[in-house]
Amino acid sequence: MTAVAETALLQPAELPDAMRRALAAGGRLRMLYAWWPDPGTLELRYVSSRPLAPFAMWRCRPAEPVPSLAPICPAIGWYEREITDLFGLEFSGHPEPHRLVLREGAKPVMPPFDPNYPAGTPVLVDQTWRFIPEIAGAAGDVQELPFGPIRADVTEAAEFLFYYIGEAILYYHPRLFFKHRGIEKRFEGMAPQPAAILAERVSGVGSLAHALAYCQAVEAAADCAPPPRACWLRVLLAELERLYNHLHYLGHLSHTTTLKVGEAEGKLLEERVKQWNARLTGSRFLRSVLAPGGLRRDLRPEGWLADEITRLQPQIDAYLRRLAETGSHLDRLLTTGILDHRTAFDQGATGPVERASGHDRDLRRDHPYAAYGETAVTVPVETAGDADARFRVRIAEIGASLDLLKEVLRRLPSGAVRVQCVPPPGAEGFGWSESPRGSLFYAVHIAADGRFARVKIKSPSFSNWRAFPYTVHQTNMMDYAINEASFGLTIAGCDR
């Protein structure tokens, strides 16, 4: 598999020591997934990495009970629970052995990702049963507030359970996956070229990042390299997506601190960038542009886009400066929702969230792709771990993205934008991108007929939702909306 230096076959009993050695060497778990190489064989894939080193992958075919690695590496906990729900494999000694993806009362006829699962058969759910954490406290003092899954405005479906006394939140339990769409299952049997359209629809605000990671996974399986112009245009598109997402983030964060002018201006600037996207590609969300092997068609940003950036950047800089100097805004961010350095690592936080907690990691620099290896990627890092730190990381990333956009426009080469890309039967590939919310991975497996046998998606929000509750426990109700907004989470990206 291209870009994976090590693919080792381990027995279940060897996994704990292998994980301990990887962590001791500075490694980090990136994801865990399962797939069926053939109808009678289930295989686990553990993916880890170290900065500036190729990814490592372990394979495990569980012929005996598989020990949970969550006590050693807490970030793996959600991946194991997801596999239990969808593939039916139990992990012994798991510290959180309750449902994650399926509702607690779900009664599937067999695991949903079993190759023999009858197509079109719904999963029946006993709505009267659900998991409720036990909270100790004086009788009658602790109150439960179930918020959702239907919430105000156009917010995505999720239920948040708050256990509180007065305004103090004792414990917070998010219940996601109400609208799990089975996108990974939908990939099965699809051909690689048209399936790029499905990847773009995993998360609307990450359409380009998903398509990019997906295309690079297919290209790794096909052992093909896109032309230089396509690689540089991919960087341009990725930074445009980062720019409009971060501007929206600042507008939404201002909304939660009741800074109405800041909200309006942030979303107006976001709209200006989306208009660039539409002029450049025909899509405000940068869809229907990427394809395995490069781009679907050439794009022409030369001339006009540099002028647009020159005109808009002073407005963006002035907006960022005013936000960073508004005392009422900063008062609500400082010390709110602290995610300390160790918890960010243990729980698998990624993107601006982990960088705000002192972790200097970014796939664009540490594992370069497209044309990022030929650029100087600036990676802003803060250490306080609070909402203010997450806010400041994104402000700095906006400036870095504008610099990258200008660099791409100066250095954009001419030439073709696509090569033939057809993975052979039995091939597999691994691809990634640093989305506006953090690390995004795709693993693809090609069946004997040239179509997909398995596609695994690891989204950044899946990681950051895992870490988020640790910033809510022992805080207060008045800060909750600000804290959630400071993470920049999406539920669609998690509920694949």
CATH superfamily name of the largest domain? Answer: Cytochrome-c3 Hydrogenase, chain B
What is the helix tally? 15
Helical content class: 25-40%
The CATH architecture classification of the largest domain is Orthogonal Bundle
Q: How many β strands by DSSP?
A: 17
The CATH topology annotation of the largest domain reads as: Cytochrome-c3 Hydrogenase, chain B
Which segments are poorly predicted (pLDDT under 50) over 5 or more consecutive residues? none
Alpha carbon gyration radius: 22 Å
Instruction: Report the portion of residues in β strands.
Output: 15-25%
Overall shape: globular
**Class based on secondary structure composition and strand pairing:** alpha+beta
Query: First CA to last CA: what distance?
Result: 25 Å
CATH class of the largest domain: Mainly Alpha
Mean pLDDT: 91
Written description of the protein model:
The protein has helices at residues 15-24, 77-87, 183-187, 196-199, 207-222, 228-256, 260-281, 304-324, 327-333, 341-346, 352-355, 363-366, 387-411, 460-467, 477-487; strands at 4-9, 28-38, 41-49, 55-60, 66-67, 91-92, 106-107, 124-125, 143-147, 159-165, 168-175, 290-291, 294-295, 428-435, 438-446, 452-458, 475-476. The strands form 6 sheets. A 4-stranded mixed β-sheet has the order 1-4-3-2, covered by helices on one side. Strands 9-10-11-17 form a 4-stranded antiparallel β-sheet. Helix 6 (228-256) runs antiparallel to helix 7, helix 6 runs antiparallel to helix 13 and helix 13 runs parallel beside helix 15. The two termini are 25 Å apart. The chain is globular, with a radius of gyration of 22 Å. A hairpin with a 2-residue loop joins strand 2 (28-38) and strand 3. It is α+β, with helices and mostly antiparallel strands and 496 residues long. The protein has 2 domains: 4-131, 2-Layer Sandwich (Beta Polymerase, domain 2), CATH 3.30.460.80; 196-457, Cytochrome-c3 Hydrogenase, chain B (Orthogonal Bundle).
